[in-house]
Amino acid sequence: MSQKKKKQSSNAREFSTLVQRRGTRNMKHKKLSSLSQRTWHVLGSDNLKEAIKCPPAEDMNEWIAANTFDFLNEVNILWGNCIDPEAHNRYLEPGSGFPKGVTYRWSNDQDNLTAPEYVEIALIWVDDQCSNQDIFPDTEKEEVKYPEDFVDNYVKEIFKKLFRVFCIFYWSYKDDMGENVAHLNTCFRHFIYFALHHGLLPDEKELQPIEKIVTRLKSDFARKSVLPSKNDT
């Protein structure tokens, strides 16, 4: 096997191993898990209002936290189980694998990332945020208090990172997913509907790489006439 082939094979295994090691440890709070599972149970029906609205008598921050955990887990599944690891070998050059005309940067000293590297860093970062009990407190304890800036400072940034990962999926990996594209579309529809309903959608500049998909989902969302629950007002 040539050195290039060995490097490519090692690269593919590296990304796969990182995802498997993280697993789904964020679903550690029973109440959050129960709320999140309820969402996906309803999602298969035509009544998406029930899938994205905060249930009566539930705390809004807790509902948003539950779904944030769930979105991270679903994206991890897509990344780790629905994409052939060998597909990463197409994107070995710095700056490769990103949507056309876009390069996502993490910090000034990591400007030369590939798209697979960015996805890994983003998912690990989101995982760390969700595992930080100063941000996502243990709901089994009494008098749980979320940070005052929980949504504006933390959740919105998490949603921006996850949206970028979805952009990379659609631009660079959709053709590798086969029948799993249906699952990608379902996950993204749920993500966009939830973000629209709860004011978590990134700004217009972030939406540009997959603007046509987002515009269509926005139109679908508007036709659903999703009304706010009492907890949403």
UniProtKB/TrEMBL annotation:
Q: Indicate the secretion signal residues.
A: none
Pfam families per the UniProt record, alphabetical:
Mob1_phocein
Reading the lineage from the top rank, the first entry is: Eukaryota
TM spans (from-to): none
Q: Where is the composition biased (Polar residues)?
A: 9-19
Residue ranges of the region described as Disordered:
1-30
The record's annotation in SMART domains points to: Mob1_phocein
Alphabetical list of PANTHER family matching this protein: MPS ONE BINDER KINASE ACTIVATOR-LIKE MOB
Name of the featured protein: Mob1/phocein family protein
Q: Which species is this UniProt entry from?
A: Aplanochytrium stocchinoi
What lineage, starting at the top, does this entry show? Eukaryota, Sar, Stramenopiles, Bigyra, Labyrinthulomycetes
